[in-house]
Amino acid sequence: MIIYSSFLNSLSLPPMLHKSGFVNIIGKPNVGKSTLLNALMGQDLSVVTPKAQTTRHRIKAILNGDDYQIVFSDTPGIMKPAYKLHERMLHAVDETLTDADLVLYVTELKDRTISDDLLFKLQGLLVPLYVLINKVDTGNQEEVMEAVEHWKKVLNPTIVLPISALHKFQVELLQEKIVSALPEGPAYFDKDEDISDRNVRFFVTEIIRGRILQQFQKEIPYSVEVFVEEYKETPEIDRIRVIIYCARESQKGILLGKGGAAMKKLGTDSRKLIEEFISKKVYIEFTVKVADDWRDNDKMLKRFGYE
């Protein structure tokens, strides 16, 4: 028995390989990038609405397993810039093409178009490219196969995968393929604590902006920016002071509503979502200000985090 135990102790099993890397999600506005990120993460970190241009910032989300860490980046939709704001947003997209270990290009089933500029950049990637054909539940098998063949010819990617981020179709398979493509390496972030590189203030801002996108129609959401001016934590309740900037005086009136009714509803809905997110009571104080040029104002864009 002693000899046998000594023999077993002399055997050294190879350590479990750990994989880690940066996986960046790009695509046009409203193709389902944020929905995909939330499905992969199993929780809502990116704002999701039916409106285009919902995501403004590059958001990193950290998915951990026993033997892997995936650092996802959700990015703004690729569009023709109309303001300096859009230029800053597109710069975030360009960054994802240079610091990725794997790029996920998300497109819709019925869209076969891609700009010459993006085509050139994707064809020149030095890392694996996965083309994800989203919203396959909106078409039939023949359309899906045609789309797969189209993107194989156009981009020659590592993988073309039909998915439905909304219905989580093939999302688990996608995660497996992502892990298999990652390089070996240590975790970049604390596995026990970090789910994003962003702080609580940022997610409070995104939750409120998401409610504005849901509650108000037409151009209002695209002319609005949310800024957390103050965040005070106490053992019982967190007190948050928020400024909502809009582009015109008429928009301020719409945001406030008759007798402040619209702002009251926004506050109630936002408070509930924030309390769910941080598991704590919050008090929110809103101020609405007009800044007609904020989307072209370098100083304000920097203040809002658009470096």
Explained architecture:
This protein is α/β, with parallel strands linked by helices and 307 residues long. It has 10 helices and 9 strands. It has helices at 2-10, 33-41, 84-96, 116-123, 141-155, 171-181, 200-215, 249-256, 261-278, 298-303, and strands spanning 19-27, 59-65, 68-74, 102-108, 129-134, 159-162, 225-233, 237-246, 281-290. A 6-stranded mixed β-sheet has the order 2-3-1-4-5-6, with helices on both faces. The longest helix has 18 residues, at 261-278. The N and C termini lie far apart (67 Å).
Helix content: 25-40%
> Major sheet: size, sense and barrel closure?
6 strands, mixed
Number of helices: 10
The count of DSSP E runs of length 2 or more, i.e. the number of strands, is 9
Mean pLDDT: 82
Broad structural category:
alpha/beta
